[in-house]
């Protein structure tokens, strides 16, 4: 019986399998080695968008004001160091864009600018500084440095490599150039080289000269330092490229005969206000100067719906120029000394970049002003960490095989603000002194006037003024 039941079940199973088997036609037979063909893609029907409730806009929380403490800012003495945080070189340097378009500055320059400004601006006297002029002049010096000397310069200039520095300076020189009818921004660089020192010839490396020409657009000139001719050529070049706003006297440029090279940057700026000041609205008023009230002429106008930045103890306002950019004016609150707002790179950065913005109708009153400034920067730069460059151990072998060091760094500047706009100029001059030069030993000869002699007194152009002979010296 059991055997019969098993046979019946087996038969039923075979019949079911045969009924479910589908025979493919010959055209549908597939090669087992071929990949299966996927069915064509059919896009899904888009679902209805989900509408979320729109939240009412909320005001962003106002940043707490920055607390500033009064900072003593005594003058820097030669050899004194300034305690400042090192410039961070670990992160990529982001570009900063100008209103003209294009990157004109990077973090490395901004850090240097804040650092130098904090060291030089005490808020107790008129000062006018062009950080970019100092930066470009030192950058040209750094191109001729090697080893630790170059590393020290790059650290101060906020760069990890000399290629980074070239990128910064090349970008600035490319972008910061305006030559329009009423707007000018002009930068020039130059290298002045000694031909001989103590009678020994001096040569400058071709690669260094090419870099200064290609990257810094610098011209190169050969002069004989220690002569009035050299001083006059350099003074004339400065006067020309600062459009006569800094009239340098050749008598003020007394170069030592051991000067190997002088590197100079000039900057000239002239631009009108985007919204002009009516001269008829200029009126006299009082200005609360450190030594008491003085009489000044104030320019006046009203700016509608304009942004004012507020910080702890100050407010800032931008007055826009036609093409170059703007002038940021920072006004301390009543009872707050300007010196309290300065004193550190972070403080300078806060005044330029931070604060809470709010729109007002601004009644603007700006005093007309104009002055010149002169700063010897050697001690300041030494205090900021530039030590090797000023020492006999400096390595500027990339510039010349003649050993040298930085002898002095000088900046002179001019600033003028009136109803027409702003005019400013500056030059920065770095003098390189040859080191380790031994005087040339020459054959000695006696020139003793112990017998009758002839003489002639001549002017500088060779004109004979007096002439004669002496046969019996003495008084008659």
Summarize the structure in words.
The chain is an alpha+beta fold and 476 residues long. The chain has one domain (75-438): 2-Layer Sandwich (Antithrombin, Chain I, domain 2). It has helices spanning 2-20, 107-120, 131-143, 147-156, 162-175, 206-214, 228-241, 338-341, 345-353, 378-383, and strands at 95-97, 103-106, 178-179, 183-194, 196-197, 200-201, 218-223, 259-272, 283-289, 292-311, 314-320, 326-332, 356-367, 369-376, 404-418, 421-434, 453-458, 464-470. Strands 3, 4, 7, 8, 14, 15 and 16 form a 7-stranded mixed sheet that branches. Strands 9, 10, 11, 12 and 13 form a 5-stranded antiparallel sheet that branches. β10 (292-311) and β11 (314-320) form a beta hairpin. The chain is globular. The model is unreliable at 12-106 and 458-462 (pLDDT under 50).
Helix and strand content put the structural class at alpha+beta
Please provide the ordered H/E string of secondary-structure elements: HEEHHHHEEEEHEHEEEEEHHEEHEEEE
Number of helical regions:
10
CATH architectural arrangement: 2-Layer Sandwich
Q: What do we call the CATH topology?
A: Antithrombin, Chain I, domain 2
How many individual domains?
1
Could you say which overall geometry the principal axes of the C-alpha atoms support? globular
Number of beta-strand segments? 18
Q: Unreliable stretches, pLDDT < 50, 5 or more residues? A: 12-106, 458-462
How large, in whole angstroms, is the Cα Rg?
37 Å
CATH superfamily: Antithrombin, subunit I, domain 2
Percent helix, as a range, is: 10-25%
CATH C-level name? Alpha Beta
Largest sheet: 7 strands, mixed
Provide the β-strand percentage band. Answer: 25-35%
